[in-house]
Amino acid sequence: xxxxxxxxxxxxxxATNPSWETAQLLAERGEELVGDRVVAVRLPVTFAGAWPAxxxxxxxxxxxxxxxxxLAGGDGRxxxxxxxxxxxxxxxxxxxxxxxxxxPVVPGAPVGHWSTLPLKASLVAVREAGVPxxxxxxxxxxxxxxxxxxxxxxxxxxxxxxxxxxxVPDAGAVPVEDQVTAxxxxxxxxxxxxxxxxVAAGTES
Length: 205
Ligand code: PCA
Description:
Its EC number is 3.4.19.3. The chain is of the alpha/beta class. It has helices at residues 18-28, 30-34, 50-61, 119-128, 143-156, 176-192, and strands at 2-8, 37-43, 65-71, 78-81, 83-85, 88-89, 101-103, 112-114, 133-136, 162-168. The longest helix has 17 residues, at 176-192. The structure holds pyroglutamic acid (PCA).
């Protein structure tokens, strides 16, 4: 079986992006960490270019599982994203200078798409691996949500395929090694087709 894991180039003035470092390490150690071939792809932080770059690799490798990664600062937890929304609303320009506001990712398409990763099984597995993790209700409205929405809309909603998005924190909060451990656990659960345990992970607001 083949797994595609994507990460992003740096953005917003940062020199590195741990999502790409994590994806790369997973590809180097795929056999050891998940027991299958992992292909890594580095995506541009541009609305125009990110999904086409991932789409090309998915078409080439015909994977069973696709996990897209991106950086989200915040509270130092790995975030398993639950839902992608069909909107672009960029607070800062992307790396090509584009700043779309309140336009759809895919015109005429549904408001949202669910992740098809086993989120709760993954939550339990990542916790057991000792890495701080949560289920997140929003992947934002920037390039990460954009790729997540396009991935689910064009590829990931077909039965038998597993796809979704995981936000990783700064490497200062969770070291890249631990990010690799966490994402490997998610990929293993996805490959297993693990049943979802009844574990509450929502929020009140
Ligand atoms: N994080 C941004 C885009 C690229 C990345 O790593 C986001 O969360 O949208």
